[in-house]
Amino acid sequence: MKKILVPVDFSKPSENALRIAAQLAKKNNAELHVLHVIELAESLFGGAQFNVDDEQIIFFMKLAKQRFSKFLDKDFLKDVNVIDNVESGSTTFGINESVEKNDIDLVVMGSSGSSGFEEIVIGSNTEKVVRYSKVPILVVKNEIEDFNIKNVVFASNFELENLDAYKKAKNFADSFDAKIQLLYVNLPGNQFYSTEEIREQMRKFLNKVEVPLSRENIEIYNDYTIEQGVINGARSLKADLIAMPTHGRKGLSHFFNGSIGEDVVNHSELPVMTFKI
Questions:
Q1: Digits of tens for pLDDT over the chain (277 positions)?
Q2: Contact by Cβ (8 Å): 8, 17
Q3: Do 55 and 164 belong to one domain?
Q4: Number of domains the chain contains
Q5: Is the same domain home to 44 and 101?
Q6: Is the pTM of this model over 0.90?
Q7: Which of 69, 109, 172, 173 is most buried, most CB within 10 Å of its CB?
Q8: Does residue 171 sit in the same domain as residue 117?
Q9: Distance CA 40, CA 60 (A)
Q10: Is residue 145, in this structure, part of any structural domain at all?
């Protein structure tokens, strides 16, 4: 983890993300890339960034850079190699472009969540980035003075396609000397599986990473939806962080069909780290 990206909009949630990213940057001796995107309606610029030669855009970018200098005047950024940048256009596009251009290893984003009509119709930039990002995303909502995690919950269907996501989550947990526990959410109705079926699925998964199956490292949690089960299960396990892949296919991998990963990110008060598979 040598390059960390934090998209900011000068809000309190983005400041919370910046604080955690600074701690991670110090811990890993990493560059901290801080990005602000002046968002414009997509009808104006289509699938690419807006023409920054436009006089009005240049004016807004100058204002944003002035705000940037004040926003980055934080004690917790001392001794951190900060690289700041202002872009214009689509926030999601700008983040993805910055990830590719700068070889970013991790994106840390703040989120206030959303609900009701706003969540359904508008969604959030955080959810869009979680949906499309090829690199891990760490989403935080609350201010955390000391991001020193001790207990990570990895929520999955435990099919073999999730092995890479698990290895990345475990590496992250190991960097904090944190315990990692595996969480499977069992649903009622035609998505129900017996304990033995789930344990066998988890046993095959753990065999691939040479970790023995034990009562201490797995949890099978029953709930009405995957989203509720992940959030409630992580709370029951007293987790500091939820880690999860963001893609699923058939059978037991009903786990992440649809927008489950985005829903957990949107509604969890705990930090959530996602891995695209």
A1: 899 999 998 889 899 999 999 999 999 999 999 998 877 655 444 445 555 556 666 666 677 777 888 888 999 999 999 998 888 778 888 899 999 999 999 999 988 765 443 333 334 677 778 777 889 999 998 899 899 999 999 999 998 989 999 999 999 999 999 999 999 999 998 778 899 999 999 999 999 988 877 777 899 999 999 999 999 999 999 999 999 998 734 444 444 444 677 888 888 999 999 998 8
A2: yes
A3: no
A4: 2
A5: yes
A6: no
A7: 109
A8: no
A9: 11
A10: no
